[in-house]
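Entry 14: structure prediction run for Doubled CXXCH motif domain-containing protein. Input pasted below.
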Amino acid sequence: MRPGPLTSFIVLMLLLITTSPVVAGDYLNSAHGNASYGVDRLDGPYAIGNCAHCHEQHASIDGNEPSPVIDDSPTKHALFTSAYTSATDNFCVECHDGTIGVANSAIVNHSYSYRAGGLTTDFASSIKDIFDLDSVDIASTHNLDDIKTLLSSAAVGLPWGYTSASHPCEGCHNPHAVQGDPANSDTGRKTVDSRGYPLSRPSQHTPLSGWGVWGDDSSEKMSTYAATGIYQAPYYYGSTSNHEPENNTTDDGSNLTDVNTFCTDCHNKTTSIYSTTLGRPLYQFDWGTEIHGKGSAIDLPAKTECRTPFIDSNQGSYILACTDCHEAHGSPNIFLIRPIVNNNAVSLPVGTTYWGDLCSSCHAATADLRAFHHQANDGYACTDCHESGKGPQVNNCTGCHFHSSYNSNYRLF
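Run finished. Output tokens:
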């Protein structure tokens, strides 16, 4: 006797039952796919985290255009609005704008200095706010138009699987795997219990790589990257005992994503990146040999030029993380320099020639250090390094010290 349809269906369901936990996969583990606080478009009839909050199967919901109607133009990935027009007019910032306009709840995304560094009052509270800094002459942002150009395989020959239809945010974030960091937090601060991993390496955006998140594995930490040297986490703002990024005593980089490997997928000694903001290509450099990277630093006789928590006797071994000095999306300072570095406020508006706020965050202006620089700059005018009328304040540190600079006599960074 052949089993009927109902019997076959029951048998099939029994075969699918397992005592092992179901593997949710990247999307269900992501911030967008989370069933409690994931994607949730305004007036949509779908459960939180449902794919249809971003992708429209037939350009309609229940036979009607979605409300609100953002853009009736079809897109390559069936998104509810055009993928990318500009840094402040694109699919991602329709929701990541800190308002209840498209999303059912305001999505707040703070700067790295606020989330991980202890900045007390943030300069922005959403991704859109940060990229809006582009309209401020004294600020700087990670130019999304330039990123989009870079990621175009046809334009630069990168074998990473990006195309002209790719969204520039995809260069650093896999939208189907990205996690909140902190995850669904009311305070917006990283803690041991609220850590997530929002980054995905550009070079792993290939069909065979899996293209998950970067930093969640023990092999993807700054402590691992700096295994041949020392990573020392800077102080959390307002503290001389706790460190970034979790405001606790862990300071060896074991709780910090290996951002150096991540960033140097693009920022390295071979990839040419043109900056429309600067009107020139960015400097190419090798973080494996740079003095603030894995290269050995100079050593002054008295060894008194480092500020805590950095120890002078270790200065030749220290390896800094990119995020120790730079914001990822944008900053009120030039070159995305953070507004706080190592428990020190830093003000470097675009157009400034005074870099003392940044350099003095980790380097003390001792007599030995001043003597070394005066010797190294023999033949130059005082105003080449010191701003007129400001006494001993260091003016243009970047005249000698910048990524990729090197002087065989003085080993300048």
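Notes: Residues 117 and 236 are 5 Å apart (CA to CA). Will compare against the previous run tomorrow.
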